[in-house]
Write a structure and sequence with these properties.
The chain is an alpha+beta fold and 455 residues long. 45% of the residues lie in helices and 20% in strands. Residues 1-12 have low confidence and may be disordered.
Length: 455
């Protein structure tokens, strides 16, 4: 009797049962595995294409937004004498409409006071309270056993939150306390010892200290119009421009204006078209593969609509199509450089506003979104929760998991099928071996009988 299926395979019958089982199981398994591998590879290819499309969309939006935010496409201020004042641009500067003369009569400065010499900065100076008043707001400075020293007084003033900075400097023969307030007239301050304070604290009242300089506002004129500000950095006078006053120069006019980076704007239009086409191709590649494509085509449509989307409040030059950008029959973009040059020559400010929109009370993200803001909106919608790319990504990830589960189940079923084949053919092998043994026995008996009959 055959002791086990494993021992029976390949013995006794003359048949190659092992190879037969292998061939039959492979014939069942291989086509199924090949199909699953093909489906898995196709799904992975689409996942990769989607990731590339997302990366391109992200990179496109980020790079354009960066160019706008860092001023690459922005009109640049010009200053005739940068030793007197400097100027930097912000969103909204219009090179076509701005030119002015600035006269800096006085710089904004902070009040400073300094004390007489103190030999030991850690020695006691007197206990009690003092009142520090800045812009009408009073703070109490308390000097007691734990901070009765020049160091303690400076620390207490700095911790008061009054806006006055106290520092100690070494001087010949000792140390001085220096107090400095905020810049501007409203930063003027007083420090006074209160009733009952030790007499030594009076030496550190502003009335007992030397005045280094008084607080003052910056005084300047722009085209003869007078302005006064508490700081030397002026952000609220010229739209789109920040002025930094460097020195007083009464009677000296400094001319300021702006120049437009026309070459950079023209290059950016060409770069926009090139990168757009790269993004478009990556989306088409992702959409052309098997699986859901409606969501990705939604992004393609929104991108295509950028050409004719109103991006500024300019009356006649407010779309990409107005400066020579158009769609080809295959959905890509091209630029008519002759038309772009003509528009730049006639109204460069309108072209700049498509990429670097003005920002003021009447020019908002609604009225003048600009191409970067419009592209950001498409990107944020696409990659946001339940956005087009997010939906497709979730579908593909779910399919990947499903294919993995199916493959595992196929392997389990095929392993079970092979085990059944081994059992069935093992039994057959045992029976064939038994039949063969019987045949051999009968042949021997017949031969024996035949020989006996001949005798």
């Amino acid at each position: 009797m055959v002791s086990s299926i494993a021992n029976s395979l390949g013995f006794g019958s003359g048949l190659d049962v092992k190879q037969l089982v292998t061939d039959l199981s492979n014939a069942s398994r291989d086509p199924k595995i090949a199909r699953m591998n093909s489906l898995t590879q196709a799904n992975q290819t689409r996942i990769s294409a989607l990731a590339q499309a997302r990366s391109n969309l992200d990179g496109f939006a980020d790079s354009l937004g960066q160019m706008v935010s860092d001023g690459t496409l922005r009109s640049t201020p010009t200053v005739s004498d940068e030793s007197v004042l400097g100027a930097t641009s912000r969103a909204g500067l219009s090179a076509d409409s701005f030119a002015a003369t600035v006269v800096v009569n006085q710089l904004a400065r902070a009040q400073t006071n300094y004390s007489g010499l103190v030999a030991d900065r850690t020695a006691a100076i007197g206990a009690g309270t003092m009142t520090l008043t800045v812009g009408g707001v009073a703070k109490t400075i308390t000097i007691g056993a734990t901070n009765n020293s020049l160091d303690g007084l400076a620390n207490a003033i700095n911790a008061s939150g009054a806006g006055v900075t106290a520092s100690i400097i070494a001087d010949e023969g000792g140390h001085r306390l220096i107090l400095k307030g905020p810049t501007g007239e409203t930063g003027a301050f007083t420090l006074a010892a209160n009733a009952g304070a030790d007499p030594g604290l009076s030496a550190f009242s502003t009335s007992g200290m030397t005045v280094g300089q008084t607080a003052a506002n910056a005084e300047f004129t722009i085209d003869g119009v007078a302005f006064s500000r508490a700081n030397n950095i002026i952000d609220d006078v010229i739209p789109g421009m920040s002025l930094t006053l460097k020195k007083a120069a009464p009677g000296q006019g400094v001319d300021i204006g702006a120049s437009r980076p026309l070459d950079m704007i023209k290059q950016t239009v060409g770069d926009f078209v090139s990168v757009y086409n790269q993004l478009k191709k990556s989306l088409v590649a992702a959409s052309s593969l098997s699986g859901p494509t409606t969501s990705l085509r939604e992004i393609e449509r929104e991108l295509s609509n950028l050409v004719n989307k109103v991006l500024s409040s300019h009356g006649s030059i407010n779309k990409l199509s107005d400066i020579g950008v158009s769609s080809t029959k295959d959905g890509l973009l091209s630029v008519d450089n002759a038309k772009l040059d003509k528009v730049l020559a006639s109204d460069a400010g309108a072209v700049e506003a498509l990429f670097n929109p003005r920002r003021d009370a009447t020019h908002t993200e609604t009225s003048d979104p600009g191409i970067a803001f419009a592209l950001d909106a498409i990107r944020d919608k696409a990659i946001g929760v339940n956005g087009a790319i997010d939906r497709v990504s979730k579908t593909l990830d779910a399919k990947k998991e499903n294919l993995t589960d199916q493959l595992e189940k196929i392997e389990e079923r095929e392993s079970a099928y092979k085990a059944r084949l081994e059992k069935q053919y093992g039994t057959l092998e045992a029976k064939l071996a038994a039949f063969k043994a019987t045949q051999t026995y009968l042949e021997q008996q017949i031969k024996l009988w035949t020989n006996q009959g001949n005798d």
